[in-house]
Amino acid sequence: MAPRRRSELFRVGIGLVAVGTFAATLGRWSLASHDWWLIASLAAAGILALEFPLHISLSVKVSVASAVFFAAVLLLPVWQAAALVGALQAVDICVAAYRKIRRTGERPPRAVAINILFNGGQAYLAAALGGLLLLAGGVSARSGLAGPLDALLLVAAAALMFATNIFLVSVAAGLATSRNPIQLFVNTNRLVYVQFVSLYLLGAAAAFASVQFAWVPMLAIVPAALVYHSLRQRVEMRRDAMRAMERMADEVDRRDPYTFNHSQRVAVYTHAIARRLGFSSSEAELLALAAKVHDIGKIRIPDAILLKPGPLTPGERRVMETHPRLGYEILRPFSEYAKVLDIVLSHHERYDGRGYPNASVGRRLMLIAQVIPVADSLDAMTSARAYRAARSWESALEELRRGAGTQWNPYVVEAAAAALAPEFRQGAPRTAQTPAIA
User: Fold this and answer.
1) Below-70 pLDDT ranges, the chain
2) Domain ranges of the chain
3) Quick one: pLDDT at residue 324?
4) Which terminus of the chain is less hemmed in, N or C, by CB atoms within 10 Å?
């Protein structure tokens, strides 16, 4: 089964578990006893907080709504709190989908439905587990904290709610990319764990204050904004580091005038091929990110080898063939590149297993790891070198077809031909340097 299909089944399963739990507990609701002003205040604060998310990685985003959600768990009966949290998360996904449809014109109802079901479901389950733990210990904002044990239980409930929420998202992302969910969980949250602790503390303080004043959750947005600002600074620092990596990769290309902007072109081609293959937007962006830095390991290759105006000797070739592993080592300390490490490492592997650095059989690699080798080769063939002229775009595509099934994945080759050169079927002229993208 394809990784993306496994991820979809997991997300649908989580959503159905949440829907089933909601239906089974609906009879325990007592609407007459609700403080509707408090619920309205929590809902308004949650919606406002969800409007300003921060993207920690390509697939994970956080917002200061965590404070509001924890306050809801402390203030409301467990099943009502879980329903409110799940509903707010689902509404946020609906709003985001609507905006995307208006911006792009795309209407992917299946993908939107799965996202709504999963995001609302995992938020519901996380809130329910945190609320059940508090209920078992007799702790709530209305009863107060009787002592250190109650405070410890409060911390445990916050940790359980947080861990459940992020772990379910990490599992979904891990299934989609065949990566270890635990590793994704750790890499995602080590950047902002201090801010997350602050958000849950803020949510608890707002909950206890709301016992007397139902409108306090709205005021909690003010200190939450300060936490948001801190989060944003941390994320921007990481993004600056990513931009520095990309600039370093560009400098590698600039060392050789024949490869100037090579990585940027490969990123464009890779994104187009990925979309033709049916990859999601986040998967296509992931591949483009990997393509931008796929040759960064060449920064450690001596000029005498990298810039040699002719064929390399066997010894020089062995040195050159270390660059994928060197790139892997350069990028490994950066959590933002965790998902692309294997793609960078395998961008010179072949479909028949005769590539480098690990001689992995390409057909056993994930499809997502077999796209850059095609885009990379296509740009290499259509770019001039000191020892040869650039091939025409049509000639390069024919070479890809001849190597399909041996050097490259034939499915990816056909997707590249369809995505990058549709006008050739109509006989229109083109240049090797500026391919049109379908």
Assistant:
1) 1-3, 30-34, 52-63, 104-108, 177-179, 183-184, 186-196, 211-260, 335, 363, 386-387, 421-438
2) 3-237, 256-426
3) 93
4) N
Q: What is the CATH number of domain 256-426?
A: 1.10.3210.10
pLDDT score of 432: 39
Copy the structure tokens of residue 229. Answer: 């600002």
Predicted local distance difference test score (pLDDT) of residue 54? 54
Instruction: Compute and round to an integer the Cα radius of gyration of the chain.
Output: 26
Q: 35 in helix, strand or coil? A: coil
* Res 322: pLDDT: 94
| Closest listed residue to residue 195, CA positions, set 223, 161, 219, 217 | 223
Q: Rounded to whole angstroms, how far apart are CA atoms 300 and 296?
A: 8
Q: State phi, psi for 308 to the nearest 5 degrees.
A: -65, 125
Dihedral pair phi/psi, residue 404, rounded to 5°: -65, 130
Residue among 38, 39, 51, 131 at smallest CA distance from 91: 51
Q: Are 391 and 381 in contact (CB under 8 A)?
A: yes
Evaluate the omega torsion of the peptide bond into residue 410 and state whether it is cis, within 30 degrees of 0: no
Asked whether the beta carbons of 260 and 433 are under 8 A apart, the reply is no
**Averaged pLDDT score across all residues of the chain:** 79
Length of the chain equals: 438
Q: Phi first, then psi: what are they for 55, rounded to 5°?
A: -85, 110
**How far is Cα 179 from Cα 126, in angstroms, rounded to an integer?**
23
Indicate the angle between helix axes 281-292 and 372-381, nearest 10 degrees.
Answer: 50
d(CA 139, CA 158): 12
Question: CA 385, CA 392: separation in Å to the nearest integer?
Answer: 14
Neighbours of 8 (CB within 10 A): 18
- Phi, psi (5° rounding) for residue 349? -75, 150
Structure confidence at residue 229 (pLDDT): 58
pTM: 0.56
Query: Are residues 224 and 49 in contact, defined by beta-carbon separation less than 8 angstroms?
Result: yes
Of 225, 172, 214, nearest to 49 by C-alpha is 225
Mapped onto helix, strand or coil, the DSSP state of residue 4 is: helix
Sign of CA pseudo-dihedral 63, 69, 74, 75: positive
The C-alpha angle 181, 85, 223, rounded to 5 degrees, equals 90
Burial of residue 333 (number of CB atoms within 10 Å: 0-12, 13-18, 19+): exposed
Distance CA 71, CA 154 (A): 11
Place of tokens 């996380």: 126
Query: How far from 136 is each of 9, 247, 267, CA to CA, in Å?
Result: 32, 53, 52
